[in-house]
Design goal:
By secondary structure, the protein is α/β, with parallel strands linked by helices. The chain has 2 domains: 223 residues, Rossmann fold; 99 residues, Rossmann fold. Helices cover 41% and strands 14% of the residues. A 6-stranded mixed sheet has the order 1-2-10-7-8-9, sandwiched between helices. The longest helix is centred in the middle third of the chain and has 15 residues. It binds ligand F0G.
Length: 356
């Protein structure tokens, strides 16, 4: 019997072609990103009550984060326009994604990361894919300022989320959420760093509403880390601090996009402490079997906070995006977990250690 090819996933550019800027077939650069699972929480009733909660696990994209949705389009368009090189500033995931897609497109990638503040998994990705990694003695915000200057004067394409194709690609996650649920969630929770993703989801949901695919858009619930919460505080943070290095950003590029998403949807941009982030990080791993990176857990920490404040109620349907895979940052997992026991290969000793 011949295997049918029908139904095979072809990546977001081809799957959502009608709703994205056109890309010439020769320029399409894809690793078949998207189509990530929407997993319902089954063991968190004590914190969610009768709010239905789903995780959109973006850690299962090809390079382990949601960035791939935007990168496939940004790199494909750069290639189509004849560009030979891409550049980005990054807390890690954007650099990993840019490096992977650039290698596939036969392009050069330059990535600027804040020295000493990038999880090892992400750094290793950028390196093995052959990007030139520049460790900037400064913050993500400093690195982004340099990237903006360089792209003004040199023939390299910026693939930070200031590149509009990044936002276009990332909005497809909202399409998938509604397609899989069959309706719109009432609330959508996201970690907020440079604020591109919340801007992208809001664009996606609004497009669905305008096309009458769903009756209304969800409230957008964005969460920054307490020590890196410029939008919540209303001013840039000069020296941002948080264990969630992915969102350690003091002056987000898409600040206005985040505010618009919040205001137009009747949502919130709020903050959670590092302790709340790490609690949520352990909770989703130990109860639901989903290993996300610390920054991703800011969204679940937000769910817990909003349930406590009764903003989230029984009967609501919340989707929580888990933006990156936990394997990006194994150091953090090891730091917050029970240490392994060292034992001799002896049945008695091991059975005793097992508690029998
Ligand atoms: N979660 C993860 C795992 C991230 O890597 C990022 C951003 C965010 C959340 C926040 O998304 O910036 O669109 O608000 N990482 C960027 C990077 C800054 O360089 O990888 P955002």
């Amino acid at each position: 019997m011949a295997l049918s090819r029908k139904g095979l996933w072809r990546g977001i550019i081809r799957e959502f072609a009608e709703h994205l800027p056109p890309v010439g077939e020769d320029a399409v650069t894809t690793l078949l990103e998207g189509n990530t699972p929407l997993v319902e929480a089954v063991n968190l009733k004590d914190v969610t009550g009768r709010t239905r909660l789903f995780f959109k696990f973006e850690g299962l994209n090809p390079t382990g984060s949601f960035k791939d949705r935007g990168m496939t389009l940004a790199v494909s368009k750069a290639r189509e326009e004849g560009s030979r090189a891409v550049i980005c500033a990054s807390t890690g995931n954007t650099s990993a994604s840019a490096a992977a897609y650039a290698s596939r497109a036969g392009m050069k990638a330059y990535v600027l990361v804040p020295e000493g503040n990038v999880a090892l998994g992400k750094l290793s990705q950028a390196m093995i894919h052959g990007a030139m990694v520049l460790e900037v003695r400064g913050s993500f915000d400093d690195a982004l300022a340099v990237v903006k200057e360089v792209t003004k004067n040199y023939p390299v394409t910026m693939v930070n989320s200031l590149n509009p194709y990044r936002i276009e690609g990332q909005k497809t996650a909202a399409f998938e959420v509604c397609e899989y649920l069959g309706y719109n969630p009432t609330h959508h929770f996201l970690p907020v760093g440079n604020a591109g993703n919340i801007t992208a989801y809001w664009k996606g949901y609004e497009e669905l509403r305008e096309r009458r695919v769903v009756s209304e858009s969800p409230r957008m619930m964005g969460f920054q880390a307490e020590g890196a919460a410029p939008i919540v505080r209303g001013e840039p943070v000069l020296n941002p601090k948080t264990v969630a290095t992915a969102i350690k950003i003091g002056n987000p590029a898409s600040w206005q996009g985040a505010l618009r998403a919040k205001e137009e949807s009747g949502g919130v941009i709020d903050m959670v402490s590092d302790e709340e982030i790490l609690d949520a990080y352990r909770l989703v791993a130990s109860r639901e079997g989903i290993f996300c990176e610390p920054a991703s857990a800011a969204s679940l920490a937000g769910v817990i906070k909003m349930r406590k404040l009764s903003v989230l109620k029984d009967g609501d349907t919340a989707v929580c995006t888990l933006t990156g895979h936990g394997l990006k940052d194994p150091d953090c997992a090891i730091k917050v977990s029970v240490k392994p026991l060292s034992v001799s290969p002896d049945v008695k000793e091991i059975v005793r250690a097992m508690g029998f």
